[in-house]
Amino acid sequence: MQSLFVPLMEIQLWKPDLVLIIVLLTGKRFQSLKGSTAGFILGIIQDSLTGMPVGITAFPKAIVGYAAGKTRAIGMEGTLYYIWFVFLILLHEMIAFAFFQFKTDFSYAFLLYSRVFPNTIYTTLMLFVVNSFTSKYFTE
After folding, report:
1. Contacts for 123-129: CB closer than 8 Å, 24+ residues apart
2. Which of 24, 48, 51, 66 is deepest in the core (most CB within 10 A)?
């Protein structure tokens, strides 16, 4: 899905991370262990298919999947878990681009305002759309 649909939705260099959305919703539905496992495995697959250095998104996705799984254990519901997911998306982007800066000539500050913040907003909007269509599959 990521390599088929995201290039059609890409705005300049800003693109949503559909794999991250699936990891967040999987972690929310199936607890933190399965969320982190899904994040790591899907991150490795995503890196190997996109030409990125392998593991550059697997680590942040595993962290975010684990933290998304904690929403159910803590008892977050409604708007509170959306705010938590926005924070997790921002955290994922910050960690991924912190690693990515070593492969480019750009500074981290440039990557923050040119990629991290727009990608966070775009992924959050896509999270609302995907969750509205798949909410019956990712709830108990």
Report:
1. 123/16, 123/17, 123/20, 123/21, 123/89, 123/93, 124/85, 124/86, 124/89, 125/16, 126/9, 126/16, 126/18, 126/21, 127/21, 127/24, 127/82, 127/85, 127/89, 128/82
2. 24
Cα atoms found within 13 Å of the Cα of residue 2, Cβ hemisphere only: 18
Specify the residue for token string 């899904």: 38
pTM of the model: 0.87
* C-alpha span between 8 and 39 (Å, rounded): 24
What is the tens place of the pLDDT at every residue in 90-128?
Answer: 999 999 888 888 878 888 889 889 889 999 999 999 999
Query: What type of residue sits at position 53?
Result: P
**Cα angle value 67/92/138 (rounded, 5°):** 50
Please state, in angstroms and rounded to a whole number, the distance separating the CA atoms of residues 94 and 108. 9
d(CA 8, CA 81): 29
Neighbours of 50 (CB within 10 A): 13
